[in-house]
Write a structure and sequence with these properties.
132 residues, mainly alpha, 2 domains, Transmembrane protein 32 protein, signal, transmembrane helix
Amino acid sequence: MPSYLSRPLTVLGLLFLSHACYSAYEHSTSIPHQPSNLASTPISSSPTSTSLPLDISLETVMSVIMICVGLVVGAEELKPITWRVWAGKVERESGGGGPFQGLEDRLGFVDIRAKRKEFADWVRDQDGENQR
């Protein structure tokens, strides 16, 4: 579908949607309401149905579909995102840091055994200095 039809299609969909809303309003006001004096109404009276007729519901759904199609067809074409172009731009703007600099600079896993050995060596050195 050509993009020059998007605006008329959207406007026509909005027109149909406003007509459907008006029809729903008219339908809701034409339903006879129960009298305000509840004491005079019989208990066995059945409530009136307030569901919309099928034509109003279909008009609403079709108008929303027309609006959606008109907006999608009229939207400008999406531009592809290239990861390396984006990352290069971000790094140039941030001065070489980049969005993942925090992940790259974080400490890796700590070697517990090596840390225990370093601590034990430090304790032995401290004990050796204290004994002198």
